[in-house]
Amino acid sequence: MTHVINFDLPNDPESYVHRIGRTARAGAAGIAISFCDSGERAHLRDIEKTIRQNVPVIEDHPYHAAEIANDPGLAKRGPQRKKRQVQRRRRPRRSGWTPGKAA
Predict the structure, then answer these.
(1) Torsions phi, psi of 77, nearest 5?
(2) Residue 46 pLDDT
(3) What is the pTM of this model?
(4) pLDDT tens digit string along 61-94?
(5) Which residues contact 20 (CB under 8 A, 6 or more apart)?
(6) pLDDT tens digits, 11-59
(7) Could you give the CA distance from residue 72 to residue 42 in angstroms, rounded to a whole number?
């Protein structure tokens, strides 16, 4: 296998090592790409401790969020999301129909 792409980081660092190890079977080289959001930052730090290396952060793409990569506090508090108030819309009654009345 030449490439492994992780869209979600595994919760267990050993699973990550197993996944990316598929690119290096029988001495072959390969590429592992992992996407990580602020909610997975703690998993990334655990992976780095397990492999005893820093995972390089690629900043040259349109979706890089520098505030996530550089804020160690996000690993503990997670993303800050505003609560949205959801309004329920009432359905208009169909003409000629009333609740509880059989047709």
Answers:
(1) -95, -15
(2) 92
(3) 0.54
(4) 666 666 555 555 554 554 444 444 555 555 555 5
(5) 4, 6, 32
(6) 888 988 888 877 767 777 888 888 887 788 888 899 999 989 998 887 7
(7) 9
CB 3 within 8 A of CB 29: no
Enclosing H/E stretch for 15:
helix 13-21
Amino acid code (one letter) for 15: S
| Cβ burial, residue 49 (10 Å; 0-12/13-18/19+) | exposed
What separation, in Å, do the N-terminal and C-terminal C-alpha atoms of the chain show?
A: 63
**SS (HEC) of 26-91:** HHCCCEEEECCCHHHHHHHHHHHHHHCCCCCCCCCCCCCCHHHHCCCCHHHHCCCCCCCCCCCCCC
Domains and CATH numbers, the chain: 3-77 (3.40.50.300)
